[in-house]
Write a structure and sequence with these properties.
The complex is a heterodimer of chains A (about 425) and B (about 700). Chain A contains 15 helices and 15 strands. In chain A, strands 5-8-1-9-12-4-13 form a 7-stranded mixed sheet, with helices on both faces. A two-stranded antiparallel sheet of chain A has the order 2-3. The longest helix of chain A is centred in the middle third of the chain and has 21 residues. Chain A is globular, with a radius of gyration of 23 Å. Chain B is built from 31 helices and 15 strands. The radius of gyration of chain B is 29 Å and the shape is globular. The two termini of chain B are about 50 Å apart. Classes of the chains: A alpha/beta (about 425), B mainly alpha (about 700). At the A-B interface, strand 7, helix 7, helix 8 and helix 9 of A face strand 14, helix 27, helix 29, helix 30 and helix 31 of B.
C-alpha cells in the first residue's frame, strides 16, 4: 500500500508528468528530473557521499568570539573575565596543546580534535558591513556570499531540494543576487502545511499544480523573457514545496521556539531531509558588548553557545548525519582585547577577529593569532605561514589575505572542490595544516 | 532649536548619491572592499525590448491600487501612451492607493520595524509600550508624510516638520518620555518627580467618581486621585500568585490605594513610571505592610488590563499635533492630563522632536551608546533622507574646529569616515542623551555640530539644524525619486539615470510636490519599461512576487474586500487565518546601514505554500457562502468568468483560453471530490496562486 507521501511523489515525479511540466513551464526536463531525484533521495533520508552540510553562524553584532580562544591566552595584556569559566586552561586540539578559556574545554574531545580557530581580520568595524563580510570583503567573485558559494557547490553534491541556504538568524543573505528570506524555525512547519477545508486532499493538490502550470504556460506565451523567468521561478517554488511537505512537515512541527537551539534543531531536520545544503543561523558569543562589566554578558553567552555546540554531535547522530555536519561561525568584526581598551567592555576591532570551524573535514588547530598593532595600543591578526598555519610576522599569508584564506579553508573543509575554490575566491591561501587528509 | 542655521556652502555640482558603499566605522588596513551590496534583478542582455501597454498599465495599477485595469483604461493608453499619467493621478487618489503609500512611507522613513523591546530601551527605560501604542508609533510618521503630501507642502518638510500625526495615547507617551529620561551616565533624570516627590498617586473606588480633569489639576483637592470603579477586583489571584489568601484579601480591601515613595515598587523614582503604567493599562505593584510581620512588606499587583484610563479611542483619534517647546509661562504638557491631551493639537515638550529621525519608532531601531555616540543614528538619518551615507569618500573639509574622536583621527583608515560622522553626530548629541532623552550635559557644546555630505557643508546646533541640512540638500529630490522608483520596480533605480535626474529636477521645480512626482514616475519608462532607461539597461527589467503589502492590496482590490490581511477571522485547520498567514510572508525590508532597501523578488517554497493557504482561506470565505458570496457553484460559468476577469485581470480576448483551463480543473476536481463547492474553491485557489495574482509585472 502506498503512503500519502509516496502517492504525492508518484504524482509529482512520474515521467509523463515531468515531460508535461517541462513543456508548460519551459524548465528543461533534465532540471526537473534532477530536482525530482533530489526529492526522491530526500524521501529516503539518504545522504549522498561527498561534502558536508554546513551550519553557518553569522552575526552583525560583532561578538567577542575572538577574545577567549586559543591564541589569546599567551599575552597577559589580553583581557579576560575573572570568571572561572574564562580561566586559562590547557586543551588539546588533535594532539596539539593550546591554552584557551576553560569553557572551551567543555566541548567533547572529539569536537576539539576537529575544531579550527582561525585568527584573521574582517577589515571593518561597522555593524552594517555584515553583508560585505559574508562576501569576504569582495574576495569572492560575482559578489556572491560565502554561505551561498558553499551552498551552490554542496547542493550539487547532495542533490538537495533547494540550492540556496535557508536563513534563520540573519537578514540580507543573497544567493546569486537574489535576497533570501529570513525564516523562523517555529514558523517552518506552519509555512509548509497543506490547506484545510478538504482543499489539501492530495488529488486536488496535484490537479491544482497541473492547472497552475497550464495557466503559467499560457502566461509565458504572452510574456517577455524577464516575465517568463518569474513564472518559472513560481513553478520551481511550487515543486520545492511539494517535495518538502510530508515527513518534513511532521518533523518540524515539534520545533516550537526560535532561539539558537531551535535553529540548530530545524537545521538538522532540513539536512536530514536533504532540503538544503546549508543553514544560516546566529549563535551569540556575547553580542555587541561595549558595556559589559567584567564581561558578564560575554561569559554567559559563551557558556550557552558552547553548551549548545557540545550537543551538535548528538543532534547530528540522531539525524543520521554523524560526521556530515560542519559548524562555521563568522562575525562582522572582532572586539578589542587589550586591557587598557576593555575596562568597560569591548569596542569594535576591525583588525582582529576569529572564525570557528568544527567538522570532520578539519584537523584541530589554530591558524594565526593576535599581535599588537604598529602603534601598540590594540591587537591585529598576524600574518601566517601557509604550511603550518602558525602566526609569523613574516609569514607568507599576509594580513590582507587572511580573511580570504579563512574562506578558502572553510570551503575546502566542507568539500567544495579545489577548482571551484580557485575559481570563486580570488585571493588568499588554503591552510592545509588544519584540514584532514 | 539652538542657534540659527549656518550654511557654509555647497559646491553647486550635481552629485551622484552614495548608494552602494557604506562606511559607518573605520576600516582597517589591507581591506578589500566590495562594491556590491546585493540586489536582485536580471542582468540585461541583448537589445532592450519595450513593454506594451497591456503589461505596464496592469503593473502600474496593481502597484498603486492592487486592482486590474478596466478595458477602457487600457484602451486609452493603447491609443495614447500619454493617457497613463492622468490615470495614475486618479489611482493615486484612491483609497487603496493611500493605504499602499502609507505602507511605503512607513518603510521608507524606517518606522515600520520598530519593536516594543527597542522602544522599551529608550528614554528612562522603564516602560515598554503596549502593542497598540507600538502600532501607533510605527504608523505615525507615515501618516505625517502623507499629510504633508496631501496639502502639497514641499516634501522636504518630512525632515523639518514639528507637526506629527498623533493619537492621544501617543501624546501621553511623548509627554511621559519628556518627563522621565536618562542622562549620558544612564542616571534617571525625572523632571516631574523632582518637582513633586512628596506627592502620592491615589486610586479610589468607594468614595465615588473623580474626574480625570480634577486628577490632573494641581489646584484641585483631588489632584492625582484616580477613580477606578472596579479597583477591588483588579487584585486577581492570577496577578498575585505568590500571595496568601489573607494577603490577597488585604490587597482587595485597600481603598484608597496610595502610591508614594514608600509604597511605589521601585521607590520614589519609579512613581512616575508607575503612574504611566497605570494610564496605559500595564498594571503596577504596590507595597503593603505584612499582616504577620510589621517589618516586612508584600506586593499587591494590580491587574492592569482592566484599568479605565487610555481607551481604544485614544489609540485611534489621529490628528496633526504640533510639538513645540513651552514659551513664556507655559509648562510642558502633563502626561496624565488625558482630558487636555484629548482636546489638544499642541504638545509642549522640553525635548525637541523634528522630522522623521527623532520619532521613537526611528530611534528605537538605532540605539546609541557611549561608544557609538549617535554616529549610526546620524548616518541612518542620511540614508533615509538623502539615500546615501558617509562612506569615507572625499568630503569637503569643515572650516571650524570639529569633534573628531582622537583615537580615530590618528588612524587614516578611520579618519576618512570619522571626519564627517563625528561632527555630524554632534547634532544628535547636543539634543539627546544616549537613551535619546533630553541632553543635560553642557559639555556637548564644546564643539559645534558640523555637516559634510555630498558636497554640502554647514554648522549648527542640535537636531533642528540637522533637519535643515537634510531638507535643503541638493540630493533630497533625487533620493526620493530613487526610493519610490526602486520600490515600484523592486530593483535599484540609478541616481545617475537621466530619467531619474529629469524627474528629480521636475520634483524640485514644482515645490517638491510628492504626488506630482509620483504621477510622473509611475508613467515614466523607469517603471513602465516602455522605453529603455539606464536603470533597466544596467539592472535588467524585473518582475517580482507581490510582497506582503502588495499581495494584500491585490486581494482586497480584486475580491472587493477591505483590510483582508488585518480583519479576516476565518481560521484553517491549523488555527491560522489570513492575517497570520500573510504576516509571515515576505515584506519590504530595510537594514541598518543599508543604503537601499531589501526587496525579495523570487518566490521561495514557504511563500508559495503560504500563498496557497491564504487562497484556500479566501475560497472558504468567498465561494458558496451564505452572505454575499463572491462566486457560487450554482452559477459556474459566471464564477469562472469572474475568476478570469476580476481575479486574474484578463481581458475579454484573453479570458476564454484560461476559462477553459479553469473549467477543466473544475471538472476534474468535482470528479475527485464529488463536491461542487470544493471543486469551485479548488479552481479559485489554482487561479489565486498563479503568477497572474501573486506576481507584479508577470503578464
Amino acid at each position: 500500500m502506498l503512503t500519502r507521501r509516496q502517492l504525492l511523489q508518484r504524482a509529482l515525479y512520474g515521467a509523463n508528468f515531468l515531460h508535461l511540466r517541462a513543456l508548460v513551464t519551459g524548465i528543461p526536463a533534465a532540471v526537473l528530473a534532477a530536482t525530482s531525484a533530489r526529492g526522491a533521495r530526500a524521501a529516503a533520508a539518504g545522504v549522498a557521499a561527498g561534502g558536508q552540510y554546513v551550519l553557518f553562524s553569522s552575526s552583525g553584532a560583532g561578538d567577542p568570539l575572538n577574545a577567549n580562544v586559543p591564541g589569546c591566552y599567551d599575552d597577559p595584556n589580553i583581557n579576560h573575565s575573572t570568571d572561572p569559566s574564562m580561566a586559562a586552561t590547557k586543551i588539546s586540539l588533535a594532539g596539539k596543546q593550546v591554552t584557551a578559556a576553560r569553557v572551551w574545554s567543555t566541548l567533547p574531545a572529539s569536537m576539539l580534535d576537529t575544531a579550527c580557530f582561525f585568527h584573521h581580520a574582517t577589515f571593518t568595524s561597522g555593524h552594517p558591513d555584515e553583508a560585505k563580510v559574508l562576501r569576504l570583503q569582495g574576495a569572492i567573485t560575482k559578489g556572491e556570499m560565502l554561505p551561498s558559494l558553499i551552498a551552490s557547490s554542496l547542493a550539487a553534491q547532495h542533490g538537495t531540494v533547494r540550492e540556496q541556504a535557508i536563513c534563520f538568524g540573519v537578514d540580507g543573505v543573497f544567493h546569486r543576487g537574489l535576497l533570501q528570506p529570513r525564516l523562523s524555525p517555529s514558523a517552518l512547519a506552519n509555512a509548509l502545511n497543506t490547506p484545510g477545508d478538504g482543499l489539501g486532499d492530495h488529488n486536488l493538490l496535484t490537479l491544482r499544480d497541473d492547472t497552475v502550470d497550464k495557466i503559467s504556460a499560457w502566461a509565458k506565451a504572452q510574456g517577455k523573457a524577464y516575465q517568463r523567468d518569474l513564472v518559472d521561478r513560481f513553478a520551481t517554488s511550487r515543486q520545492e514545496v511539494r517535495t518538502m511537505q510530508g515527513q518534513l512537515l511532521t518533523a518540524l512541527q515539534a520545533i516550537r521556539g526560535n532561539d539558537a537551539t531551535s535553529q540548530f534543531q530545524a537545521a538538522m531536520v532540513l539536512f536530514k531531509m536533504n532540503v538544503c545544503p546549508s543553514v544560516v543561523t546566529s549563535l551569540s558569543f556575547g553580542g555587541d558588548n561595549h558595556d559589559d562589566q567584567n564581561f558578564g554578558g560575554e561569559v554567559n553567552a559563551h557558556r550557552n553557545a558552547i553548551a549548545l555546540l557540545a550537543k551538535l554531535p548528538e543532534m547530528a547522530a540522531t539525524a543520521g548525519l554523524t560526521n556530515k555536519v560542519t559548524f562555521a561561525a563568522t562575525n562582522v568584526f572582532g572586539r578589542n582585547l587589550a586591557v587598557q581598551n576593555t575596562q568597560r567592555g569591548r569596542d569594535h576591532n576591525a583588525n582582529h577577529a576569529v572564525s570557528l570551524i568544527i567538522g570532520s573535514g578539519v584537523r584541530g588547530g589554530v591558524v594565526g593569532g593576535p599581535g599588537l598593532s604598529e602603534r601598540g595600543n590594540e591587537y591585529s591578526a598576524q600574518p601566517v605561514d601557509v604550511a603550518t598555519g602558525a602566526a609569523n610576522p613574516r609569514g607568507d599569508v599576509a594580513y590582507g589575505d587572511l580573511f580570504a584564506s579563512y574562506g578558502r579553508t572553510l570551503c575546502a573543509a566542507v568539500g567544495v572542490p579545489a577548482a571551484d575554490i580557485d575559481d570563486r575566491i580570488r585571493s588568499g591561501r588554503t591552510i592545509a595544516a588544519v584540514l584532514q587528509g | 532649536m539652538g542657534k540659527p542655521f549656518v550654511r557654509f556652502g555647497h559646491q553647486g555640482r550635481r552629485l551622484p548619491l552614495l548608494l552602494l558603499l557604506l562606511c559607518t566605522a573605520c576600516v582597517g588596513n589591507g581591506a578589500q572592499r566590495s562594491g556590491n551590496d546585493g540586489g536582485g534583478g536580471d542582468v540585461a542582455a541583448g537589445p532592450f525590448e519595450p513593454d506594451a501597454p497591456r503589461t505596464y498599465v496592469t503593473k502600474v495599477k496593481t502597484l498603486l491600487t492592487g486592482g486590474v485595469p478596466a478595458a477602457d483604461e487600457l484602451a486609452q493608453v493603447e491609443r495614447d501612451p500619454g493617457a497613463l499619467a492622468p490615470l495614475v493621478r486618479g489611482w493615486l487618489a484612491s483609497s487603496p492607493s493611500r493605504q499602499i503609500l502609507l505602507d511605503f512611507f512607513a518603510d521608507a522613513f524606517q518606522q515600520s520595524q520598530a519593536s516594543a523591546d527597542g522602544l522599551g530601551d529608550l528614554y528612562d527605560q522603564q516602560n515598554t509600550p503596549d502593542p497598540n501604542l507600538v502600532l501607533n508609533l510605527r504608523e505615525s510618521f507615515a501618516r505625517t508624510a502623507q499629510a504633508i503630501a496631501d496639502r502639497k507642502e514641499p516634501f522636504n518638510a518630512v525632515a523639518t516638520t514639528q507637526r506629527f500625526m498623533m493619537t492621544t495615547a501617543m501624546m501621553a507617551y511623548y509627554a511621559y518620555t519628556d518627563t522621565s529620561g536618562r542622562d549620558d551616565t544612564y542616571k534617571v533624570n525625572n523632571r516631574w518627580y523632582a518637582a513633586n516627590g512628596n506627592l502620592a498617586v491615589t486610586l479610589v473606588e468607594k468614595r465615588g467618581p473623580v474626574t480625570l480633569t480634577a486628577a490632573a489639576n494641581p489646584q484641585s483637592p483631588d489632584y492625582l486621585t484616580f477613580y477606578v470603579p472596579n479597583l477591588h477586583a483588579l487584585f486577581t489571584a492570577n496577578s498575585n500568585a505568590t500571595l496568601e489568601a489573607d494577603e490577597l484579601a488585604g490587597c482587595a480591601a485597600t481603598d484608597p490605594l496610595r502610591l508614594d515613595r514608600s509604597t511605589s515598587d521601585g521607590g520614589g523614582a519609579m512613581l512616575v513610571a508607575n503612574l504611566y503604567r497605570l494610564l496605559s493599562g500595564n498594571g503596577v505593584s504596590v507595597k503593603k505592610p505584612s499582616v504577620r510581620d510589621a517589618n516586612q512588606t508584600y506586593r499587591c499587583n494590580v491587574q492592569g488590563s482592566a484599568l479605565p484610563f487610555l481607551t481604544s479611542t485614544d489609540y485611534n483619534d489621529w490628528r496633526e499635533v504640533t510639538v513645540r517647546a513651552p514659551a513664556g509661562t507655559e509648562m510642558p504638557s502633563t502626561f496624565f492630563d488625558l482630558p487636555t491631551l484629548r482636546a489638544s493639537t499642541t504638545l509642549l515638550m522640553d525635548s525637541v522632536r523634528v522630522g522623521y529621525f527623532t520619532t521613537p519608532a526611528f530611534l528605537a531601531q538605532y540605539p546609541s551608546n557611549v561608544s557609538n555616540s549617535s554616529r549610526a543614528t546620524a548616518n541612518q538619518a542620511l540614508i533615509v533622507g538623502l539615500g546615501g551615507q558617509v562612506d569615507g569618500s572625499a568630503q569637503l573639509p569643515l572650516t571650524f574646529p570639529t569633534a573628531i574622536d582622537p583615537e580615530h583621527a590618528a588612524n587614516p583608515a578611520c579618519f576618512a569616515c570619522h571626519q564627517s560622522l563625528d561632527p555630524m553626530r554632534q547634532y544628535f548629541r547636543q539634543s539627546y542623551s544616549v537613551t535619546y532623552s533630553k541632553q543635560t550635559d553642557k559639555k556637548v557644546y564644546l564643539y559645534p555640530a558640523g555637516f559634510s555630505f555630498g558636497g554640502t557643508t554647514g554648522a549648527g546646533e542640535g537636531v533642528g539644524d540637522f533637519a535643515q541640512q537634510i531638507a535643503q540638500h541638493p540630493a533630497f529630490a533625487a533620493a526620493w525619486v530613487v526610493k519610490l522608483c526602486s520600490w515600484a520596480t523592486s530593483t535599484p533605480c540609478l541616481p545617475t539615470d537621466p530619467e531619474v535626474l529629469r524627474l528629480a529636477a521636475d520634483f524640485q521645480a514644482n515645490n517638491l510636490d510628492f504626488y506630482r512626482m509620483a504621477e510622473q514616475l509611475f508613467s515614466s519608462p523607469l517603471v513602465t519599461y516602455a522605453k529603455p532607461t539606464l536603470s533597466a539597461r544596467t539592472n535588467g527589467k524585473q518582475a517580482s512576487i507581490a510582497r506582503r503589502h502588495q499581495l494584500c492590496a491585490v486581494l482586497n482590490a480584486r475580491l472587493g474586500l477591505t483590510d483582508v490581511c488585518e480583519r479576516s477571522r476565518q481560521r484553517d485547520d491549523g488555527g491560522n487565518n489570513v492575517p497570520s498567514r500573510t504576516a509571515s510572508m515576505a515584506g519590504d525590508l530595510y537594514v541598518r546601514g543599508g543604503s537601499a532597501p531589501l526587496y525579495l523578488t523570487t518566490p521561495d517554497p514557504f511563500y508559495a505554500n503560504q500563498l496557497e493557504n491564504v487562497c484556500a482561506l479566501l475560497a472558504s470565505t468567498q465561494i458558496d457562502v451564505k452572505d454575499a458570496p463572491w462566486a457560487t457553484s450554482d452559477a459556474l460559468d459566471a464564477a469562472l468568468a469572474r475568476i478570469a476577469s476580476d481575479l486574474l485581470g484578463l481581458s475579454e480576448q484573453e479570458a476564454p483560453d484560461v476559462v477553459a483551463l479553469l473549467q477543466a480543473h473544475y471538472d476534474a476536481a468535482f470528479a475527485a471530490s464529488k463536491s461542487a463547492s470544493r471543486a469551485l474553491r479548488s479552481t479559485f485557489v489554482a487561479a489565486c496562486r498563479s503568477p497572474l495574482v501573486a506576481g507584479v509585472g508577470a503578464l
